[in-house]
Amino acid sequence: MRLIIEARVEGGEARETDATIVAVVERKDGSLADLGLTLAEGRALLAEVQAFLVPKQTAGWMKSQMACHRCGSMLAHKDARSIVLRTVFGKVDVTSPRLWACSCVAEKGQPRRSLSPLCKAVHQRVTPELEYLQARWAAHLPYRQATELLREVLPLDKGISFGSTRRRILAVGSALDAQINRDIASGPKPDSGEQVRESTTVGCVSVDSAWLNFSSSPRSRKAERDLAELKSPWAQKLTRDRHVNIVAGRATLSDRTPRLYAYVHKLVPSAPARLDQFLFASGVAPDERVTVISDDAGEFGKAVDGSQLARGRILDWFHIAMKFKAARNSVFGSKTMAPHERIAVETEIDHAKWLVWHGKGRQSVSRIKAMDATLLAKEGYEYSTGLR
C-alpha cells in the first residue's frame, strides 16, 4: 500500500498550481507492524508542508510591497537574496529581494537607499509560535532538556539550540521587566485616606522565597572551567551572583484562577512597587487593601511595610506550625522539669496550636504567655517557648 500526499495552492490572486508531492508513505499489505505514521514520518511531512507553504506566502506578500506606499510608483529591483526563517516545523529558505527606495522619499544630496521589506517584517527570523514554544517549555524544564524535547517531537534538528533557547528566555524576561516598569511608572496611585476597604477581588497574597545555588557537575564538559572560575579571585563576584534569591507570590482571586508573580530579589529596584503593580494588575482598586501571607523573612517585611496596597502580613500555617514544634523542642532541653510536668506543658502547647488553627489567635497567645510566665518563674528553668 502506498499513500501519496500532494499539495497545491489555489484561491486568492494566485492561480491554481499543479499538485506537488510532499510525502509518500509505503506500508506492507496485510501487516500492522507500522500502524499509522511514525514520528519520523510525521516530522518529515510537517517539514515538507512548511517548506512548500512559507515561500508561497512570502512571495504573495512581496507582491504587495513592490509599489511605494506614498506615491504608488513601482520600486526598482536591486538584487535578490535569501534569508532563513526558523519556524515550529523547521528552517525554511525564502527569497528576500532588495528594492531601491522611491525617489519621493529621497533627500537631496543623500545617496539612494535600498530596502528589504521581508527582512524588516521578520527582523528576528523566527515565527511567534516557535518563540512561544521555546519560552513555554524552557519555563518548566532546563534549557537543554526543553531543546531536546522540542527536537524530538518537531522537525527542528538544526532550527534551535540550547543557546538560542536561553537567549529567547532572557529576551522574554527583559520584555516582561520593561512592561512591568512601564506599568509601575504609569499605574494608578493608591488612596492615602483612611477610608479603605478589604479587596473584593483578591482574597490574599501568599509569598515565599527560595535560593538557587550554582553547582558544577563533575560529568559536565565545562566542569574544569567552572571550578577554575570558582577558585580565581576575579570570579568571586560572579560566583556570588550565581546564588540568587527568588521571591514568588500567588494571589487568590474570587472569580478566576490564581495569578502568580516572581522576581529575583536583588535585581528588582523596589520590591514594594513590584507588589503594588502585581496587585493593581490583579484587580485591586486604589482604595482597597490586601493581606499578605508569608514567613517572617526580612525581605517580605520590607516589601509589605513599603507597599501601599498591603494591609498587613501574617505568618502562613506551615511556619506557625514550625514555631509550635520549636516550642515543644524547647521543653525537652530543660533538666529541671519532671516528666509529668513536661507532658502537661506539651499538652498546653497542643491546645494553643488548636486554638490558632480554629481562628482563636488571641486566646492562644494568652495561654502561651501564661505558660511562659509560669515556666520562667520556676527556679532553675532557663528556656522559653519563643512563641510570644
Structure description:
The protein has 388 residues and is of the alpha/beta class. The chain has four domains: 124 residues, no CATH class; 56 residues; 119 residues, no CATH class; 60 residues, no CATH class. 42% of the residues lie in helices and 20% in strands. Strands 6, 7, 8, 9, 10 and 11 form a six-stranded mixed sheet that branches. A three-stranded antiparallel sheet has the order 3-4-5, with helices on both faces. A two-stranded antiparallel sheet has the order 1-2. The longest helix is centred in the first third of the chain and has 25 residues. The chain is elongated and about 100 Å long. The termini are far apart.
Notable characteristics:
4 domains, 388 residues, 3-stranded antiparallel beta sheet, single chain, 6-stranded mixed beta sheet, 11 strands, 12 helices, alpha/beta
Report Rg: 32 Å
What's the β-strand tally? Answer: 11
Structural class: alpha/beta
Spell out the helices and strands N to C: EEHEEEHHHHEEHHEEHEHEHHH
Describe the protein's topology:
Blueprint: E1 2-7, E2 20-26, H1 39-63, E3 77-87, E4 90-100, E5 114-115, H2 117-121, H3 128-138, H4 143-153, H5 162-186, E6 197-198, E7 202-212, H6 223-231, H7 236-241, E8 244-253, E9 259-264, H8 271-281, E10 288-294, H9 298-306, E11 310-315, H10 317-332, H11 339-357, H12 361-377
Helix pairs in contact: 3-4, 3-5, 4-5, 5-8, 8-9, 10-11, 11-12
Structure described in brief:
The chain is of the alpha/beta class and 388 residues long. It has helices at residues 39-63, 117-121, 128-138, 143-153, 162-186, 223-231, 236-241, 271-281, 298-306, 317-332, 339-357, 361-377; strands spanning 2-7, 20-26, 77-87, 90-100, 114-115, 197-198, 202-212, 244-253, 259-264, 288-294, 310-315.
